[in-house]
């Protein structure tokens, strides 16, 4: 017997299809109005290649640098109860909800030469404004909630009794963290790292305020659109989307392959 | 060997109250109590996972109350094994060997030896997700025993196993104990306690209410809770009164039960085994001096026959065969007579 589909399911299906179309149509339109030759031509431009490379490595550097502190923070949030925990959780989500241009303005004040951080940077010959280090900070600022939240979910899913068992087997708290908690939460952490990296790469608003130059690809796309129009902005957009997709599909595939037998029984 | 002195710990909805007991070297000590009685909490306190609010814990005459968890010589096996799911069986067993001055080969040999002893020598390369409950329990045991703990703490180790595996693991635990391992085992199953324990302590609502050898606890239950908990249903608080040289135990609702005792008048408990109670459909003349009419409340089958609960002013439980049940035609709600001899009533003074 064929199961009957109710009207409500049909309506949901229709609405869902509309949402999918809403996402796919503009992208498909852009891809269809760009020829492979145009994309190839764009890929040969040094300015484009440099900007894509800059975008990838600044986002990667920001992700890795901040993960050193973000992952332990996620562990604390998952395991400990402390006063004002809800406020701390709210603060972590703040970069997601504030306008990113405003975040850029805030960051500019934080890293400019007059600031403490700026002066510390100047002391070692580093000026964050207009520098890849400043770009990495801006990218990390807007994308770090994704890593913290994913890692916190991962640590929450690790049964506390496994950590307790490790302690009774003579392990110090540090050894428990590195041999039990971290490996068992690793899938979520990698997922968070990939999300943070991806979100960092696509950031425009905060980065453009802190560093118009050197130009990351989202800024380059904006500049080409402003200076030459839609036609000239399309090929670099398509190229950047293709590279981003290839990168994230590859990373996700690698994470899945590495997972192996480390599935946590929950 | 292990001594708990007045350990107290308050939680939001539960507390341990001045828990004290001593486990001697070579004991198989059972802590018996219902779910939520505080048994696991006592084990976690000994292992150092929970810090007591007051009291002290001595292990081999050394005060370990504030000792770091990893420095205590108490090995805890969790109720649900808590085997690390991302490590092989071999890696799990070898976990506690980290930091010891042993070569890789020596560690491998130690792991192999203990795995063979526990009957899991062929599982060393397997991942825990592929093992049965019984195998996981053995991995958890091996992982703890390899540290050579002064005391092995077992939290309901048989509760998640089926009957056949329970038998296997009981034999294994007995053999571990015979080799000289001191064990503190918590359970809610009094049969498990009888079958394994050399000493038993009964815990209820965070307090130890009785302790002693299995025979002391089971033959002289110190309270109604202990008696009910260990399966003795006909257990009543009474006042002993002698009238015309005949001794009666009056229950709380003044039902007089004839008993034979040399005890003086006063308060105590009486205990009647279900097997010693006779039932009849009509009043009959027997040597029993306790004869009461009653109403059948409930008939529950058990492995040997049926338990019939009769309300005869006090609720009595008789254990009879299925044949007798059919012969008497007893049904819930029906009436019958209850008979038991005065000599079948055991009196325990308070």
Descriptive account of the structure:
The complex is a heterodimer of chains A (266) and B (350). Helices cover 80% and strands 0% of the residues of chain A. Chain A is mostly helical. Chain A has a domain at 58-214: MetI-like fold (Orthogonal Bundle). In chain A, α3 (46-79) runs parallel beside α7. The two termini of chain A are 36 Å apart. The relative contact order of chain A is 0.13. Residues 260-266 of chain A have low confidence and may be disordered. The longest helix of chain B is centred in the middle third of the chain and has 16 residues, at 163-178. The relative contact order of chain B is 0.12. In chain B, strands 6-7-8-3-9-10 form a six-stranded mixed sheet, sandwiched between helices. A five-stranded antiparallel sheet of chain B has the order 13-12-11-14-20. In chain B, strands 15-19-16-17-18 form a five-stranded antiparallel sheet. Chain A binds chain B through residues 159, 161-162, 164-172, 175, 179-180, 183-184, 261-265, and chain B through 44, 47-49, 69-70, 72, 74-76, 78, 80, 82, 84-86, 95-96, 98-99, 127-129, 140, 143-144, 147.
Which keywords apply here?
heterodimer; A: mainly alpha; MetI-like fold; globular; B: 350 residues; alpha+beta; Rossmann fold; OB fold (Dihydrolipoamide Acetyltransferase, E2P); 2 domains; six-stranded mixed β-sheet; five-stranded antiparallel β-sheet; 20 strands
Task: Give a quick summary of the entry.
The complex is a heterodimer of chains A (266) and B (350). With 266 residues, chain A is mostly helical.
